[in-house]
């Protein structure tokens, strides 16, 4: 008999249940603009302390995230991975994801989001 493997840590464990549900619903809708996946990047090894939540948002066919949605102490920001711009602070995950959707709709991956 083999020892049981530990269950994998749940993704997006820093999010509240309502936020996780919202993210999954948002991801389904965002497929219409070419967003293929979201990934919980917080568990990765980072060289220094990081935010509470880091969500990588991937466009269809891309191996690298197009945007990072970063949450810390109740505030959120969106970073564009193409040009390094970062949004102003946003009050909710929903606001941050709405900005990503807007940017994806406009295909502004290389334009400033400030």
Task: Describe the protein.
This protein has about 110 residues and is α+β, with helices and mostly antiparallel strands. It contains two helices and four strands. It is globular, with a radius of gyration of 15 Å. The termini are far apart.
**Helical run tally:** 2
Mean pLDDT: 85
Share of residues in helices: 10-25%
Measured distance between first and last alpha carbons: 57 Å
- What gyration radius follows from the Cα positions, in whole Å? 15 Å
- The secondary structure category is alpha+beta
List keywords for this structure.
four-stranded antiparallel sheet; 22% strand; disordered N terminus; 2 helices; alpha+beta; disordered C terminus; 114 residues
In short:
By secondary structure, this protein is α+β, with helices and mostly antiparallel strands.
Task: List the SSEs and their pairings.
Blueprint: H1 17-30, E1 35-40, E2 53-59, E3 67-72, E4 75-80, H2 93-106
Helix pairs in contact: 1-2
């Amino acid at each position: 008999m083999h020892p049981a493997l530990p269950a994998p840590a749940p993704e997006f464990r820093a999010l509240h249940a309502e936020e996780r549900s919202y993210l999954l619903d948002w991801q389904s809708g965002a497929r219409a603009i070419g967003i293929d996946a979201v990934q919980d990047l917080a568990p990765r090894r980072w060289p220094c302390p990081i935010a509470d939540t880091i969500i990588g948002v991937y466009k269809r066919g891309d191996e690298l995230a197009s945007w990072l949605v970063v949450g810390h102490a109740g505030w959120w920001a969106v970073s564009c991975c193409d040009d390094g711009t970062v949004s102003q602070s946003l009050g909710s995950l929903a606001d941050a994801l709405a900005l990503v959707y807007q940017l994806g709709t406009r295909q502004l991956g290389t334009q400033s989001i400030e």
